[in-house]
Give the backbone structure.
Amino acid sequence: MTQTLDLTIPPALAELSTLRAAIARLFDASTWSELGRDALDLELAVHEILTNVIRHAAPTGDVSVYLAHLGDRVEVVVADDGTPLDTRELPTVSPGELREGGYGLHLARRLVDRISYVRTADGNRWRLSKELSA
């Protein structure tokens, strides 16, 4: 059975807890705990993308988050009307390098199976996909 969540949140870091609570309501406690590491990886990846959207894209309107649990995978789409991402300005993360900040996208890429970014006429759109091992 497909479970979905369609949520709109204001572009404020304090609202990230709203997303976490909504995800918890979407999946009953037993399903979420069965997903184990996959659930934690996905939640952290979405959190990192949303943090980057709020801090760097500076959307003027709300941020939309769509999540679908499709049995063997979870798909997430994050959309905002902020400034476009300039991929030429993304920081390079070197193994073993210690610094504050700049790890969000790198971390998100490592936690999910697929991640993509596209600039549309309406704004920015991130798509994340996580294959479930359970």
Q: What stands out?
A: The longest strand covers residues 123-131. The mean pLDDT is 84. The first helix runs from residue 16 to 26. The beta strands are 3-9, 63-69, 73-80, 114-120, 123-131.
